[in-house]
Amino acid sequence: GHGHIPDRVKLTQPGDLAIKCMACPCPGVTLPEGWKSEPQNEQWVYFRYIYCPIFALDTNFHMSNIKKSTEENDPGLHTGLAYFIDHDKYIQHVCKYASQKDISTCSSFQTLQHSKTRNTHGLRTMGVEMCVCTCHEHVVPLTVGDLQVSEIYCNMNYMAGSAIKSFDDALQIFFLYNVACQWKVKLCNQMMKLPSHAHISDDMALDFGIPKLHCKGHKQACQCQYSMNLHQGLGCTCGEGIKHTWDNMNPCAASMKEMGLGTHHNTIDNQFGGHNWRKQTCLGEQSDCM
């Protein structure tokens, strides 16, 4: 670990303590040299499947946290070094846009409206949001954050930008989100407002889809455009793997609700670290079963 290397603790960079997915397409790690210069006709197959990271975004309202100890009395030991983002920078960004109105025009799906009717009395945070790699269900470093108000796009924009920073060299990234049809409408303009450490490159292509279980809740026009069954190279991806991760975390929700802010963050980091390690060590078994 980092504690066994001289000065390594002081030199630890954001996200260094996270267990990264070793199966995701990562230049310099899992991709061959010269992968960007392959002929266009051959690159197309790889571009949509092998070379394109697939991320899923979601929120868990079970993992709320009540107002107890302050951050000064209960600081996080490694917040911003593993899965939880730098809390101070994140709050500064969210506070600028927390009052924005994200109205959904998709008549069959009311996620945003429902999230704003939840009881927030006595709560510091309403839940937790995160990003995972869809194919392998690993939590992406620096993509877990508290939900202060409700499920609004400025939170997800920050998570998406932070996730992409781990794959800066990717040509294209595919995002799955329950309300991707609404989220993507103003995403380009909103991405320009992100801080530099979460800003998305202008030359990176983004594509969007809706997880298969949630897609049926949208109107027909959304289903035709965002169905996973209709995207080349993604037909066998259900996109609901992030729900499995939440299911593993929910038994901890009751105890984490009573924790101070720093302990709350530390516990989430530790739980996701264990989750990623179990996924990492079982990837071979998953491949044998496919």
| SS strand fraction | 5-15%
Average pLDDT across residues?
82
In sequence order, what are the helices and strands, one letter per element? HHEEHHEEEEHEHHEHHHHH
Q: Number of helical runs?
A: 12
What is the radius of gyration?
A: 19 Å
Show unreliable segments: none
**What best-fitting shape do the alpha-carbon axes yield?**
globular
Estimated helix fraction: 25-40%
Distance between the termini: 33 Å
Q: Give the structural class.
A: alpha/beta
Could you tell me the number of beta strands?
Answer: 8
Main sheet attributes: strand count, strand direction, barrel closure: 6 strands, mixed
Protein name: CxC2-like cysteine cluster KDZ transposase-associated domain-containing protein
Pfam families: KDZ (PF18758)
Structure commentary:
Helix content is 37%, strand content 12%. It is of the alpha/beta class and 290 residues long. The protein has a domain at 21-62 and 86-243. The strands form 2 sheets. Strands 1, 4, 5, 6, 7 and 8 form a 6-stranded mixed β-sheet that branches. Strand 4 (127-133) and strand 5 form a beta hairpin. The protein is globular, with a radius of gyration of 19 Å. The mean pLDDT is 82. It holds the Pfam family KDZ.
